[in-house]
Amino acid sequence: MNAKAEVTDACDLRFGQVGIACVRVRRVDAAALCDELERRVRAAPQMFARAAVVLDLSHLSNLPDDGAVDALLEAVRSAGMLPVGLAYGTSETEALAKRMGLPLIAKFRAAYEPAAGSTSPAEPAPRAEAAPTVQREPILSAPPSDGMHGAQHHAGSVRSGQQVYARERDLIITGAVANGAEVIADGNIHIYGSLRGRAMAGAQGDGKARIFVSDFRAELVAIAGQYRVFEQIPGDLEGQSVQCWLEGDKLLIARL
């Protein structure tokens, strides 16, 4: 009698683009951190409740001790978010992550981490800022993003739960982006349909990137880490053709 064949493949392991927010800690105050994150969750529960976040400690003058970091992580959890790791940083950060049993997320490089082959600091990790005021004076042209390849085209709609990422190029969507769907590009994003989900341009820090939408009903738009969340679209923007761009640290939106 033949023995039963042994099943050796217990799982598949794959890497892909994952939507993770970055919490940049500016002072070691667990209570204040919890209050601020709770405010964000209350303002946009569909976006931030149980959101996966990375803790960036690079803007602190000194790396906190293990107990202080544990308190910060607990503050994130208490606010309703889920910390999944620390932002990639120095050897001290790596040692801290090992002691805390957390991974280092290389996508978020700390502000003090030098770029490869350079003595200047790398671009800081994306940060979440308070929603800026909408500006209604449009700018009709989009400057090309340096170093970008030809645009990536996605024919049809992007369904809820799907993510489309255009690496080192612009992204063109010829259909709708549904609630819960996510479109990301290192360059500009053009959506020739309704945007009901999330659109994030300049994902690697390109502040010149722009977002163009034919029918604006977004959950979130972001450029180079600066974002705006919408629980309710302003009446003069809902369903309109708009563009989004950065002026300094402000994300501006205007009808076309």
UniProtKB/TrEMBL annotation:
InterPro entries: CAP/MinC_C (IPR016098), MinC (IPR013033), MinC_C_sf (IPR036145), MinC_N (IPR007874), Septum_form_inhib_MinC_C (IPR005526)
GO biological process terms held by the UniProt record: cell morphogenesis; division septum assembly; regulation of cell division; regulation of cell septum assembly
Annotated ranges, domain Septum formation inhibitor MinC C-terminal: 156-253
Source domain of life: Bacteria
UniProt keyword Zinc present: no
Keywords (A to Z) from UniProt: Cell cycle, Cell division, Septation
Residue intervals of the Septum formation inhibitor MinC N-terminal domain: 14-83
Region Disordered: start-end pairs: 138-159
Alphabetized PANTHER family for the sequence: SEPTUM SITE-DETERMINING PROTEIN MINC
Family: Belongs to the MinC family.
NCBIfam families per UniProt: minC
Record's function text: Cell division inhibitor that blocks the formation of polar Z ring septums. Rapidly oscillates between the poles of the cell to destabilize FtsZ filaments that have formed before they mature into polar Z rings. Prevents FtsZ polymerization.
Quaternary organization: Interacts with MinD and FtsZ.
Protein name: Probable septum site-determining protein MinC
Gene: minC
